[in-house]
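Q: Here's a chain of 179 amino acids. Please give me its 3D structure as tokens.
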Amino acid sequence: MKKENIPNLLTLIRIAMIPIFILILSLPNRSDLHWIAALIFAVASFTDYLDGYLARKWQVVSNFGKFADPMADKLLVMSAFILLVGLGFVPAWIAALIVCRELAVTGLRLLLVEQGGTVLAAAMPGKIKTFSQMFAIIFYLFHFTLLADITLYIALFFTLYSGYDYFKGASFLFKDTFQ
């Protein structure tokens, strides 16, 4: 395999881990398996870091990677938050805000590309959002509830702030909306 394909392979591995993660967390009355789900989620999260690192290091960018990498991240995180609501770990309103922000920013990214080919790169608040969301999920699955709750509220703040920041930066797209 050519090294140029390794970041895309890591993304595919992350996508393949999502149904396994969902299955394990969906087993009824099996909280003893949450640590396995946490490990799967942690490995999947690490592949997100690793595929981005390798793509930058080797300067390999593909249309598949531009599409699949952020989609895999969103599918993984949104699935986890939905399942954590079902398990009673995360309030539904927080998960709803996180899912809504993810969908809104994804729509914004599509609009930016359609309007001029602009790719909306992840800014620091978005990176903090992703990092804190992933750690909150892992902490919940390991039953580190206090640490998970604190991290969740940090994630919520950066989820909302980064969403605002992205829309503020792309406000030119909507300048004629209310004229």
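Q: Can you summarize the key feature?
A: The radius of gyration is 17 Å.
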